[in-house]
Each structure stands twice: as structure tokens, then as C-alpha cells.
Amino acid sequence: MMPSVEESPAVGRIVDGEHRLPLRVYYEDTDAAGIVYYANYLRFFERGRTEMLACIGIDHAALLPQGLVYVVAEVALRYRTPGRLGDVLTVATRLERIRKAGLAVHQRVMRDGHVLVEGQVAVAFVGPDGRPRRQPDDWIKAFEAIVEGALPRA
Amino acid sequence: MMPSVEESPAVGRIVDGEHRLPLRVYYEDTDAAGIVYYANYLRFFERGRTEMLACIGIDHAALLPQGLVYVVAEVALRYRTPGRLGDVLTVATRLERIRKAGLAVHQRVMRDGHVLVEGQVAVAFVGPDGRPRRQPDDWIKAFEAIVEGALPRA
Amino acid sequence: MMPSVEESPAVGRIVDGEHRLPLRVYYEDTDAAGIVYYANYLRFFERGRTEMLACIGIDHAALLPQGLVYVVAEVALRYRTPGRLGDVLTVATRLERIRKAGLAVHQRVMRDGHVLVEGQVAVAFVGPDGRPRRQPDDWIKAFEAIVEGALPRA
Amino acid sequence: MMPSVEESPAVGRIVDGEHRLPLRVYYEDTDAAGIVYYANYLRFFERGRTEMLACIGIDHAALLPQGLVYVVAEVALRYRTPGRLGDVLTVATRLERIRKAGLAVHQRVMRDGHVLVEGQVAVAFVGPDGRPRRQPDDWIKAFEAIVEGALPRA
Description:
- The structure is a homotetramer.
- By secondary structure, chain A is an alpha+beta fold.
- In chain A, 18% of the residues lie in helices and 36% in strands.
- The first copy, chain A, is globular.
- The model of chain A is unreliable at 1-5 (pLDDT under 50).
- Chains A and D meet through strand 2 and helix 1 of A and strand 2 and helix 1 of D.
- Strand 3 (69-79) of chain A pairs antiparallel with strand 3 of chain B.
């Protein structure tokens, strides 16, 4: 049986108006060129966005049964330096624009304070019909609190 | 024992100056929102680029032991309509600019002639030190032949 | 615009009582050790099972909205020789046992007639409650036709 | 700039003779059936094995340039209950047999103390020629210390 007290997954924290999530590069993330496969940075980015939401109390998986989901509308990525097996990386997630039905997010993957990959991600909040929906008001307030640095350092 | 004559994987072909590769969406490509996971279009794009190279006789895996590889420098993607389980999609790959040490590529993922996702990918040809290398001259000629429509329809 | 006649994805065919699907190894399939990542053979296996179903007219994705799905109950894999970037592989899928609510499947991934990985997969047909359901009778008949070699060579 | 003190990735710890690693299920891990895709448990297993090694001071990525790697020889998995988006799971990794050139490992993926998936993984330590190599003596001693419960609780 599991003991009642268990270590948690890394959930990151909000520092200087952005969320930072640490992660390690495993074999699954790399390719035969010996570096992190280029698509996998989008997996890392999504982990960062999910944990940023969780940090401010938003459990976006809970709305999935109602068909309310964040979908990605646009992505732009710049690859500067390759990540490698065993690296400890940090995913930094910063809200750039808060809209009624979506968010513009700037994300970086860093190693020892240097940026490996950075990019913009535009996400839209949509309903079961795929059309944009207004994000809940308390979510928007929570997003604004991050941007304004109003959140206490975790 | 395997019979000597086997079906080949889909390798696509060059039509109207671009390469087109058909593929099917499997469970592995989808996520809990019921659609193709956003990072996986970059996997589809890379299959398209690889098969375009193979179509003109370039086996880029063969140079990997020498440390000569194409790496992705920049990506910009626009997601229009979600792909779904079981879809038959086409990845269209068009060379937009041929440089000494790299390529600018426009790619689309389509279903029944409609674009689901489109994007730009900038790839660089690099050596073991990660610095740009001049692509082999015959490769550059083969790229130009695609763009000029000089290649016979496969 | 897309021409009306397009190449299809590789769908494989039934030969000697088993289904064979060809596929190519891309960067996405490999890891930093230079070989196909061990979990990815399960992706290849699932492509094989899906195309075997499609070959006999079963579109299992079509039942997903009703919550009827095949889930994997057990897997046993033996890794003999690593697959590598650029390899053309064949996934062979053979029905070993046909049960009311499931299938026992033997699968191999081969290169030039040599087995790289082989394994057993037990799949169960389940309803929205996750409980076993009887597979449609015409599906069971189609499975039996494969095993008995009653299917014409495609 | 990054502050000098950062949160670490979850690395798990050794409890009751086994290593336990917590992780969260993200969209990337799920499929259109709304559950964790069956191949991805092998990714979770490998994270568990890697962090168990790291916990006892073994950085297996460091030997990759010399061509010394652990490869998986056999896997047997039993899927009991599906994992879902947002789940916090624990990967438990227990050494069952320590051999000169390999390890037999029992692994479980659990949610709230219940086993979702369990399995056996046989790994071999191999050289650049793919042939088995003797694992370093101090590694074998560290493995034995885990099994004997000689390691202090972290």
C-alpha cells in the first residue's frame, strides 16, 4: 500500500510574473541526432501551460466532459540551442495578452538560464462546437493577477 | 519467411512543384480532446520533408554517422481545423527558398483538399559542431528542379 | 487545389493468414541511443492492428462516439535487434485466438525478413462502462476468414 | 535572468525497497478514447527507471558517448484500469533480480494506491557492439543496497 504522504509531481511556481516548471529530458524526448526532437518542445510548452493554470487553481481537465477546452490556434517557435539527454530544463510561461476567449502566451525552454527554444502560442477557449467561448470571469481575474505580479510568490 | 515482393510504405510523390504524402491518423496521434494533438503535426511535417528528400534520391539518414544533419531553426504553425481519429490526411511540402546551408519550407496538412494546419519551417544543414554547412551541390540542383517543375511527375 | 486522384497511405495486405504493413522509421521514432525507442514498437503494433481491421472492412474509429472501443489488456514484447533511422519495416499481425469479447494477437516487426521485435497483445472490446462487450458477429466472421486463409490475397 | 535557486524536477525517492516517482498525466499522454495511450506507460516506466538510477548516483546518460547503454530486452505489461487526463500517478520501480549484465525490474503505475498498470522489464547493459557488458561494480553494490533496504529513506 502507498503511504499517505507522497512526493508530488513538479508543479512549478510563479516567479516575477511568469510560471516556471522544471523537467528532465528522458530518452523518450530525444532522437537519433542525439538531441531533443523538435516537436517535443510543444509537449514541454503544454506541460508549462497546464501547470500554470493548476498553480492558480484552474483544473482545465475538469471541463473536458462539457466539451470546453483550450485549443492551440497558432504557434511560432525559434530553436536556438539543442537540449540533450539528461538535461534539467525550465519551461517559463508568461501571459502576454488576455482576451475574452483566449490567451497569447510567450514560452521559453531554458537550461542554466540560457534559452534553448522560445516561442509564442495563441490558445483559444472553445465549446463542443469548436467555436470560441468566453473564459470564466474568475479565470480572467486570476490571469490578470499573475501579469500584475499580484500573486504572492509561491 | 517474407516473400520477396512486399508493399512499400507510402512515399508520396511530387505534383505541381510540391511533394504530397498521404497518412492515416491513429490513436497515437490523438489526445483526450478527441483531436490530433497539436505537437504531432510537426511529426507529420517531418515525415513529409523526409519523403520529399527520398523522392529526389536524398537519404539524409545516411549522413547522420558523419554528424551532418538537417536541424529545424524556426517553425510557425496555424491550426485551422482539427484532425480526427481515422482521417486520411495529406502532407504537402513546398520549397519556398533554397539557401546554401538551408531551406525555407511551406507545409500543409489537408483533408479532402481542405487545409487543417499550415506552416513554415526553416531548416539548417549543420555539421557535428552544430554550425551551418553548405548542402551538397547535387542536392541543391535537385531542390531547384522540384521548384522549377522540372521533375517528371512520379 | 488537390487533384481528385491521390496516393493512399500504406494500408498493408493480408498474406498467408496474416496482415503485413510496411512503414518507415523517422526521427520521431528514434532516441538518443540511435535506435527506435522501445515504446514506439507498440505504436507500430497498433498501426498494424488498425490496418488489419480496415483491410476487412472494420472501421473501429466509427464506434468511438458510442464508447465502443478495443482496449489493450496485456502486452508481452521481446526485443531482438534494434530498428534504426530510415529503416523500412514490416509489421506482421496474426490473430491467434478469437474470443467473444476480444482477440489474442501475435505481432512482429521485421526488417528484410528478420524479426526485430515480436510480441503478444491481448485486446478486449469494451463499452462506455469499460466492461467487455461481444464483438459484432460479422466482425468475428471476418476474423475467422483471415485465420482460415479464406480471404483472397489482396 | 533565472534566479539561482530553482525548483527541481520530481525525482522521486526510495521507500520500502522501491523507487517511487510521481507524475501528472497531460494531453500528450492521452488518446481519443479519453485514456492514457497504452504505449505511454512504457515512457512512464522508463522515467521511473531513470530516476531510480539518478537517486543512487548513476547518471546513465553520461556513458552514452562511450556507447554504453541500458537496452530493454523484454517487457510484459498488464493493463488493469485506465489512467486519465489530469491524474497524478506514481511509478513504482522495484529491482527483482540483479545480474552481471542486466536487471529484472518490476514496475507499477498507481493512482491513489491502486495499480493501473504493472509489468516486468528486463534490461541489458550493452556496449557499442550491442553485446552485454558487465555493469560497473559500484552500480551493482548500489542496486543491492536498494534491495536490502540498506539505503536510508530519502
